[in-house]
Amino acid sequence: MTENEITLALIQSLKDGRTQDFQHILDELQPYDIAVQYRHLPEKHRERFLLHLTVRQLTELMQELHRNDQVRLLERMSVDQSTKVLDLMDNDDLVSLLSDLEPTMIEELLSRMNREESSYIQKTMNYPPETAGRIMNNRYVWIPRHYTIREAIDKIRDFAEIAEYLNYLYVVDEDKKLLGVVSYKDLILGELDEQIDDVMYTRVVKVDALTDQEEVAAIISRYDFITLPVVDTENRLLGIITVDDVIDVVLQEANEDIEKLSASGKSIDFQTPPFVAAYRRLPWLILLLFIGLISGGIISRFEDTLQTVVALAFFMPMIAGMTGNTGTQSLAVVVRGLVGQKPDKKGTFKLILRELWVGIIIGVTCAVLILLIAYVWQGSLVLGLVVGSSLLLTLIIGTLAGTVIPLILYRLKIDPAVASGPLITTINDILSLLIYFGLASLFISRLM
Amino acid sequence: MTENEITLALIQSLKDGRTQDFQHILDELQPYDIAVQYRHLPEKHRERFLLHLTVRQLTELMQELHRNDQVRLLERMSVDQSTKVLDLMDNDDLVSLLSDLEPTMIEELLSRMNREESSYIQKTMNYPPETAGRIMNNRYVWIPRHYTIREAIDKIRDFAEIAEYLNYLYVVDEDKKLLGVVSYKDLILGELDEQIDDVMYTRVVKVDALTDQEEVAAIISRYDFITLPVVDTENRLLGIITVDDVIDVVLQEANEDIEKLSASGKSIDFQTPPFVAAYRRLPWLILLLFIGLISGGIISRFEDTLQTVVALAFFMPMIAGMTGNTGTQSLAVVVRGLVGQKPDKKGTFKLILRELWVGIIIGVTCAVLILLIAYVWQGSLVLGLVVGSSLLLTLIIGTLAGTVIPLILYRLKIDPAVASGPLITTINDILSLLIYFGLASLFISRLM
């Protein structure tokens, strides 16, 4: 059945009151598909649709909706329903939802929830955003070391409905300190009477709750793990992070890099209303407007030079543009490179040296090209030489600026991506104008 | 033990010929850690290190190395060793390695491999790059529908070493057509004598082998799957795609977007030598150089205007820069938005209308600001009005250009990210100069 056919079948079964048929269709749908159906459904059918969902299905639906729809659904449900749904929701999804609500609303919702769950949620929400503690959940299975494989399998069976993934069991002592990990492969390949102690793996890869989520993503993708345990400073097991959340983290971090590189403002998507989008973009633009006026100030200093040789103005946008472009290129290489690896001092020096060479190669190539063009176009060899040597210098400096500025920010523990493309472009504009008009003024007598 | 302590212990055990101790240390290391140790090891110890690895450890090491190191290791191994390693390697990793080798080398390596494996590899390599077929592997477990849960568990036990993840078993008929899927949760919760037929899930989410890898990543992250089956047009099961590869795809696609947005050239990382990096960046820069000269041509057309009112030159870089910046912002919003959703005609129209509004709001704000600044700085209201209204127009047009150009490319099935920031910036440069000098020429008599 296509999506539309399913929608029609669902509506029909709701209209006819055929509850069993309705459940039959839903049973075959993934949570994501249930959410798609809910969004497809005309408003007038939604009330009845929700009435016929089990608490588990309501929870699954909840977890797949966008933030606005989640809040609306929350308001639609009865107090009893919403409490059950919150109890059942994955902790990490719930924390993410609560983080966006009003404090009084958070308190009210938490007070209704199962005590154990709500205290876990509160603990999680105390960790700073974008850390391991904030995206962990408690849907894992733990066992003591003296268990046999048979006992471990029994425990898995009891928790199969609740645990998010069953790929690993975590072995802890009486203080919940993490001792080891057992994979379900070990369980399948071992003998039922063998003790967990003998099959567990003790060199556990784990992260502290305060680890940055980008680092967490790097570890999970490096080791190809499905889940990663989170511990406190005493090595007590606090929760696990699952690979599906890591994909979200990778996407989010890449989007943040692009937002910053393009200075396009935070979280603007296709649904953002125009005033909000403009409001988020304006601060950057106004900053860049003022920096752009510095270029104007520089040109006004060279007013006489420009008045004498107006042809100098013809090459101004090209030189400024090229310097900005090469800076943006270097910036992008550095920002993305830093995602994968953290260079030490030697590596940083090597990288700057590499970019210096790149700047020289690019500079010489483009300078020779523009020298010829300027000579042919304006018939003045001196003008060609001034334009060419300016371009050579500004390309080298622009390339280095695009490399060194993000690296300095990185050393200062500031996200290097805030040195956005537009910012580098504007700074390089200023540098290039200074060099260009400076050189031109030196040779002004020959240019006339 | 820290990484360095492990390295020292490994070297010591190799020197003393304590093979058992050596293996003891290795047993506790993850494949990624073995690779880290290998890279740490001084060249003179590597030979002996490799000699002491089992074939399985060699394979794990191989899979974790960078391409250059992989090729070097391949050359170092004996023919017998390398054949065994290739047979054991995950298909997707092997395909990715082979894709970068010479055709004669590929043929030679494949001819030595296990017949079944090499024919699977050849089939995989026939799919276009960046499709599901290219990143799938055959390390999954399949069962016929008439199996009982007990038989299924026995089969899992037989294949536990080979299968990459055991989260799902795939149920196929005698033609290998995909009938359903069973999760290990179903196996754990079911009765041993129950038939697979009764517990399997038949509405399987699957992809065709020609599906784009970006689409595959979207499906896996949408459904929070660990693996996703790949079928041919006849619904025959060809392989599975695993979540760890999807993380790599997401990272790769984000990097490609940033490379294109910044026009920074393909695959430049910290290790790329300067000549290669310069060679990859130059084509873009030379193209942008020529486009930049068009700006120069426009200015030369307005030589008289500029000669009369040199102050016009002061605002040139700011206007061109701002138009480029707003274009880059819109571009980034569109390119990243398209990763998550594919707007239909109505959505596209709404988006363009939204950006038009954004352009107007941004334009009015900045225009009023610059009108005041220009008036105060240069003391001419007419100049202020010319600069302000130019900025208003160019910001609206620049915002629209940054939105419409990538959307048109997207409709033409060209990757919208090729409309790079530098390209949009340069095009917006030209548009803004035309408008600015055009308006200035109209009011030239009042500006003098």
UniProtKB/TrEMBL annotation, chains A, B:
<dbReference type="InterPro" id="IPR006667">
    <property type="entry name" value="SLC41_membr_dom"/>
</dbReference>
<protein>
    <recommendedName>
        <fullName>Magnesium transporter MgtE</fullName>
    </recommendedName>
</protein>
<feature type="transmembrane region" description="Helical">
    <location>
        <begin position="282"/>
        <end position="302"/>
    </location>
</feature>
<feature type="domain" description="CBS">
    <location>
        <begin position="200"/>
        <end position="258"/>
    </location>
</feature>
<keyword id="KW-0479">Metal-binding</keyword>
<dbReference type="GO" id="GO:0015095">
    <property type="term" value="F:magnesium ion transmembrane transporter activity"/>
</dbReference>
<feature type="domain" description="CBS">
    <location>
        <begin position="136"/>
        <end position="199"/>
    </location>
</feature>
<feature type="transmembrane region" description="Helical">
    <location>
        <begin position="356"/>
        <end position="377"/>
    </location>
</feature>
<dbReference type="InterPro" id="IPR036739">
    <property type="entry name" value="SLC41_membr_dom_sf"/>
</dbReference>
<dbReference type="GO" id="GO:0046872">
    <property type="term" value="F:metal ion binding"/>
</dbReference>
<dbReference type="GO" id="GO:0005886">
    <property type="term" value="C:plasma membrane"/>
</dbReference>
<dbReference type="InterPro" id="IPR038076">
    <property type="entry name" value="MgtE_N_sf"/>
</dbReference>
<dbReference type="Pfam" id="PF03448">
    <property type="entry name" value="MgtE_N"/>
</dbReference>
<keyword id="KW-1133">Transmembrane helix</keyword>
<dbReference type="Pfam" id="PF00571">
    <property type="entry name" value="CBS"/>
</dbReference>
<comment type="subunit">
    <text>Homodimer.</text>
</comment>
<comment type="function">
    <text>Acts as a magnesium transporter.</text>
</comment>
<dbReference type="Pfam" id="PF01769">
    <property type="entry name" value="MgtE"/>
</dbReference>
<keyword id="KW-0812">Transmembrane</keyword>
<comment type="similarity">
    <text>Belongs to the SLC41A transporter family.</text>
</comment>
<keyword id="KW-1003">Cell membrane</keyword>
<feature type="transmembrane region" description="Helical">
    <location>
        <begin position="422"/>
        <end position="444"/>
    </location>
</feature>
<dbReference type="InterPro" id="IPR006668">
    <property type="entry name" value="Mg_transptr_MgtE_intracell_dom"/>
</dbReference>
<dbReference type="InterPro" id="IPR046342">
    <property type="entry name" value="CBS_dom_sf"/>
</dbReference>
<dbReference type="InterPro" id="IPR006669">
    <property type="entry name" value="MgtE_transporter"/>
</dbReference>
<keyword id="KW-0813">Transport</keyword>
<keyword id="KW-0472">Membrane</keyword>
<dbReference type="InterPro" id="IPR000644">
    <property type="entry name" value="CBS_dom"/>
</dbReference>
<keyword id="KW-0129">CBS domain</keyword>
<keyword id="KW-0460">Magnesium</keyword>
<feature type="transmembrane region" description="Helical">
    <location>
        <begin position="383"/>
        <end position="410"/>
    </location>
</feature>
<feature type="transmembrane region" description="Helical">
    <location>
        <begin position="308"/>
        <end position="335"/>
    </location>
</feature>
